[in-house]
Design brief:
elongated; mainly alpha; 70 residues
Length: 70
């Protein structure tokens, strides 16, 4: 549980701190889809929302791990 919690915590932080790089990696095969600035901003927002969900979800396994220590 501890490893899963830490993995999701790190993934969430990476998605929140570097959303532009994550979006560029999503569209490595076809960069022409990112020519429009609005599309790029929307994908950046989607990646940040996903990162936030990872951070919130990481609290569940970490809290279970802490409960198991008692």
């Amino acid at each position: 549980m501890f490893g899963l919690g830490l993995f999701s915590l790190v993934c969430g932080y990476l998605l929140l701190l570097r959303p532009v790089r994550s979006v560029e990696m999503l569209f490595t095969s076809d960069k022409s889809k990112l020519d429009d600035e609005i599309t790029r901003r929307l994908w950046k927002l989607y990646v940040q929302m996903g990162g936030f969900c990872f951070l919130v979800w990481s609290l569940l396994p970490l809290s279970e791990f802490i409960k198991s220590l008692r």
